[in-house]
Design a protein that fits this description.
Helix content: 25-40%
Strand order of the largest sheet: 2-1-3-4-5-11
Radius of gyration: 19 Å
Number of domains: 2
Order of helices and strands: EHEEHEHEHEHEEEEHEH
CATH superfamily of the largest domain: NAD(P)-binding Rossmann-like Domain
Strand content: 15-25%
CATH architecture of the largest domain: 3-Layer(aba) Sandwich
Number of strands: 11
CATH class of the largest domain: Alpha Beta
Distance between the termini: 24 Å
């Protein structure tokens, strides 16, 4: 495949390193010095898929262009999920192909599925209280991570005693119905996510630790391969479902 790399930061560079190993070519690049918002469809004429790890501030303008240009795209940028319904309508209107995920690590996808399986059991064991904690490097632009929020939502959907995700620091007693999602920014940590269930006598934890950015890049490239020839709005769950089938 010919890939357009949108966002040439650390994740973009990781994609550029992984793609040739899968037999793909990076044929054009867009970043702050050559913004996609200043491009035209002709600039992506021979591109099979765009892989976008840009910034939240430009995510929606990029998505709008991908849809209008009928350009298949894999979106690793977060910070736009409040507009998901609008994006779904846009994808349907233009018969576009778009795949998004807050985290393209296949290991994290496995963690989410394990959590979805465990949570109903925990829901029957009221002594256990749930939490999510994540740690990333100091250059990460969002806090908490989109992955931590996703894991939190997975729990809230499956735990009857939790009604919402709470991401702010708590300076008083926390609402028992709130699921606390906390963050640490330190050094050069690639990404660590822990989901815990704390009881009176023990604690059960499920966790994922990334060894490098290559794992995220590999997942994004595999997702791009899967998206080729498909139309619709997809997530990494759709890819896993297809592989499992």
């Amino acid at each position: 495949m010919n890939i357009a790399l949108v966002g040439t930061g650390q994740m973009g560079q990781a994609v550029a390193d992984v793609a040739p190993d899968r037999g793909h070519d990076i044929t054009c690049r867009f970043d702050s010095s050559r913004p996609l918002t200043g491009a035209s469809p002709d600039n992506l004429r021979d591109v099979d898929v765009a892989i976008d790890f840009s910034l939240p501030s430009v995510a929606l303008p990029h998505i709008q262009r991908y849809c209008h240009w009928h350009q298949p795209a894999v979106i690793g940028t977060t910070g736009w999920y409040d507009h998901l319904d609008d994006v779904r309508e846009l994808v349907d209107e233009h018969d576009a192909g778009l795949l998004y995920a807050p985290n393209f690590s296949l290991g994290t996808a496995v963690l989410q599925r394990a959590l979805a399986a465990v949570a109903p059991l925990i829901d029957q064991l009221e002594d256990y209280d749930a939490f999510v904690h994540e740690m990333h490097h100091t250059q990460k632009v969002d806090s908490p991570s989109g992955t931590a929020e996703m894991l939190g939502r997975t729990l809230v959907e499956r735990l009857g005693r939790k009604s919402r995700v709470e991401t702010e620091a708590q300076h008083d007693r926390i609402d028992p119905e709130a699921l606390h999602v906390t963050s640490t920014r330190c050094g050069s940590v690639f990404g660590e996510h822990t989901v815990g269930f704390d009881g009176s006598f023990d604690r059960v934890e499920l966790s994922h630790s990334a060894k490098s950015r290559a794992g995220f890049a590999y997942g994004a490239v595999r997702a791009a391969e899967w998206l080729d020839g498909r139309t619709g709005l997809f997530t990494l769950d759709d890819v896993l479902d297809d592989w499992l089938d």
